[in-house]
Amino acid sequence: MTEMVYGAVPVRDAEPVLPKWWRTIDKWSISCVLILFGIGLLLGLAASPPLAEKNGFAPFHYVQRQTLFGAMALSAMFLTSMMSPSLVRRLAVIGFLAAFVALILLPVFGTDFGKGAVRWYSLGFASVQPSEFLKPGFVVVAAWMMAASQDINGPPGLTWSFLLAIVIVAFLAMQPDFGQACLVLFGWGVMYFVAGAPILLLLAMAVCVIAAGSVAYSNSEHFARRIDGFLSPDVDPNTQLGFATNAIREGGFFGVGVGEGEVKWSLPDAHTDFIIAVAAEEYGLILVLCIILLYATVLVRSLARLMRERDPFIRLAGTGLVAMFAVQAMINMGVAVRLLPAKGMTLPFVSYGGSSLIAGGIAVGMLFAFTRSRPQGEIGDILRGRVR
């Protein structure tokens, strides 16, 4: 009688957080990320002592910092992956706004650390790169806008997300940081494609990107120098690409041996942008293929789970996050083997770097939160039901 008058009492989910998280998380993907971080520490033991010696630090100074940053990154990843999609979205919006304001203020308060591009805030004991934290927040915000546009009488979310992407790309190009700008555009383009964008529109966007690249080539010495170096048939053996190419060639299938590599003594960024060259020289093609397999596993398994997702926001946000994760890895390795122009981009969870590691942990934590198993019908069943 009580239920007839007041309605049925809602059933509360009494399952503890940790057992529920462990039951619903993609264990293969999270294992791959942990292995990648372990490989990063292993390579850091080989790549960072020369730089530490040059800067007057203890031999494993950078490995210790990498361990600290990694602990923070993995903690952020685990905590974020336990959140609900709605909580992830709310926190991502706040984080995006903070990172966007920090990006705007970079020309005033930022520093370039002598590298010619103002991308960081110096905190004395560490540095922060706002663009690393901006990327996952932007993906979630753009996915929210695109999903809202699919509602009846919904806002023009596709247009809003495009304008937001253009504004972010413009600020990144001013640093200049064309690599991160391209990554933001790529992530938005993948989500737009999944949201149902026509192929002709995407082709038109590709033409616009090529035109913008031509303008940048004509007006940016930094950009032109990197493109000319990539297109040159000869590689200067005394450049970073020259050292990396030679190291990969010397490594062969099985490498020259642990600690026997020479590239770490020549490359100033051996522990960051060119960490894959250290892996190829000391451990050979075998380790490089293992690293590629680990990234591919996270990509394929995440996409497979997202294909079964009914919520358009979760599907779009998850696709954008995993696309950025995989493409950033592809760009880093592509630069080392001279398939792509040089870009200052780290290898996720393997390269040294505080901002990239912690932001990567947050981004992958969001991805795992979106790909957790949830009680829902298969999207194919929903579509077949509409047909009937």
Give a written overview of the molecule.
This protein is mostly helical. The chain has one domain. Helices cover 69% and strands 1% of the residues. Strands 1-2 form a two-stranded antiparallel ribbon. Helix 3 runs antiparallel to helix 14, helix 8 packs parallel to helix 10 and helix 8 packs parallel to helix 16.
Highlighted features:
mainly alpha; two-stranded antiparallel ribbon; 69% helix; globular
Short description:
This protein has 388 residues and is mostly helical. It is 69% helix and 1% strand. The two termini are 39 Å apart.
- Major β-sheet profile: 2 strands, antiparallel
User: What pattern of helices and strands is seen along the backbone?
Assistant: HHHHHHHEEHHHHHHHHHH
Task: Identify the strand order in the major beta sheet.
Answer: 1-2
Overall SS class: mainly alpha
The count of β-strands is 2
Give the helix/strand layout.
Blueprint: H1 2-6, H2 17-24, H3 27-47, H4 49-54, H5 61-81, H6 85-104, H7 106-109, E1 121-122, E2 127-128, H8 130-149, H9 157-174, H10 178-194, H11 199-219, H12 221-231, H13 240-251, H14 275-307, H15 312-336, H16 354-371, H17 379-387
Antiparallel strand pairs: 1-2
Helix pairs in contact: 3-5, 3-14, 5-16, 6-8, 8-9, 8-10, 8-15, 8-16, 9-10, 10-15, 11-12, 13-14, 14-15, 15-16
